[in-house]
Records
---
Amino acid sequence: MSEPSSAGGETPPRPSRASLRTAVVWEVLQDALDRRVKATGTECLDILDTGGGTGNFAVPAARLGHRVTVVDPSPNALFALERRAAEAGVADRVRGVQGDIHGLFDVVERGGYDAVLCHGVLEYVDDPAEGVRNAVAALRPGGALSLLAAGLGGAVLARALAGHFNEARQALTDPAGRWGTGDPVPRRFTAEQLTEAVTAAGVEVGAVHGVRVFADLVPGVLVDTEPGALDALLRLEAAAAELPAFRSVATQLHVLGEKRG
Ligand SMILES: C[S@@+](CC[C@H](N)C(=O)[O-])C[C@H]1O[C@@H](n2cnc3c(N)ncnc32)[C@H](O)[C@@H]1O
């Protein structure tokens, strides 16, 4: 299985623990970008990564030959992005812009992108529905939306398995899916909430995947020390990702869709 750091057709390095966070999304995203390349007949797509941070996806996408604009409010993240893009030899294809998903069109063009990524951002924004609408409005007709956000079911399961039963129940009933005041995540979503939001914004949903179904529940030491365990876990995550029963207890949910023409 490839991962973002192995983009560009080179020999893939051994998967790292970080690939547990990115592998499923990257596989799905790469396929979507390939389809868009075929549909548009251009090798170099215009990609927008809203809340792209330090470039976990932006830099690998640029290594595939695409032009990527990252909009993020954090100057520190944008600084790290610039350094990372330079180290990867793609500084000319990655542009960091300080901005916010709510004021997206103050800094980027409406309807100007073949693909828009919105990964790990909706949890933190004031108005997730508006965030989704803006992400979709940045797409050209037929463009691909890649949306990743914290899943409610995964948090409930994780709190319960850690013995925090009241917190697990609290997350289930809390409108924002939070397990208590100490919860570092401001908001979580069900697959239905995410697919409804993107559908309402004008996107045809293509696939919904669960990300990190097992990875956050297994002891880290096992994955780090047991020979072959990381590879086996990555394959298990890939196999379970699209099955609704597992998806509903994943730490994150990934929705891939296409903007209606
Ligand atoms: C969990 S990180 C995810 C980074 C990256 N998308 C990834 O998947 O690795 C969340 C990012 O969202 C950014 N962010 C927070 N609020 C935002 C907003 N209102 N609009 C756009 N980005 C925001 C943060 O600065 C941070 O870089």
---
Amino acid sequence: MKRILITGGAGFIGSHLCERLLKEGNEVICLDNYFTGSKSNIVHLLENPYFELIRHDVTHPYFVEVDEIYNLACPASPVHYQYNSIKTIKTSVMGAINMLGLAKRIKARILQASTSEVYGDPLEHPQPESYWGNVNPIGVRSCYDEGKRCAESLFLNYHRQNNVDIKIVRIFNTYGPRMHPNDGRVVSNFIVQALKGESITIFGDGSQTRSFQYVDDLLEGMIRMMKSKKSFTGPVNLGNPNEFSMIQLANEIIDITGSKSTIKYLPLPEDDPSQRQPDISLAEKELNNWQPVIQLRKGLEKTVTYFDKLLTKEL
Ligand SMILES: NC(=O)c1ccc[n+]([C@@H]2O[C@H](COP(=O)([O-])OP(=O)(O)OC[C@H]3O[C@@H](n4cnc5c(N)ncnc54)[C@H](O)[C@@H]3O)[C@@H](O)[C@H]2O)c1
């Protein structure tokens, strides 16, 4: 049994990670300030004596004895990370410093949830980890992109200078139950609009593509990364390389929900990348042939079931 700290544990990905690591027989400490996360995401775990919930903000130091740290605390969707952009930078940068300081002191292994946003609007396609990215350092998304890039730099510097045992995963678009219903992310947006019978809003002409990874595939990759050999620090891409256009996604969701919604086209927001797709060959090589296994249709069905319950107040 390991004792594991998960920052951002009450969020979408964090809550699934808490659940999975408890199921595997670990002790889990979930730390969150509830900015975008919520107690309802983890309330079902509170009866488990091996689960602890701490209200704390990662921009302040926190001390605890653990074997592993998963650092997920950070709002992940543009509406939330732009709401208080300075705080987003602080969360990424000071959060990383505080958690790396803790890992150094207690000699814990620490994994950073980085993002495909470090590639910005990529000029190389698909993106391998060796690609340095095309990020606008002063654009409205930079609080998130540059915050995450700085966090990666901090991780590598703590590793090189202080031999901290680090792991970095670059997460591509992930979806599933417990996504925030109003965070403007495309999958949750489309599903909520379809279930409410509202128009499905597509930004741009809908031909831009995204790859969508179901949350369980991501968890498998993150846990394999945490268990990987010490010399493999990453960064490693974790995403589903299957690309779908926004129009395809909208049609799939209309089909699953049986909705009468129609599609409405709106102008593209600033700095919206036109294409992003992971090259996952490094993950396959280093993480025991890791590959996403859940097909979009199956993952969407599970997510629609969750949002349907949420909207009809069964959750
Ligand atoms: N969901 C994705 O597609 C995606 C893609 C790339 C990277 N990521 C990264 O994965 C991590 C989790 O993302 P998510 O989708 O679950 O988002 P989320 O917003 O649901 O979860 C983030 C959690 O961090 C908490 N948090 C935010 N600021 C905090 C602070 N200062 N102190 C303590 N807690 C804080 C929030 O309350 C929330 O519970 C994030 O670091 C995100 O950048 C997610």
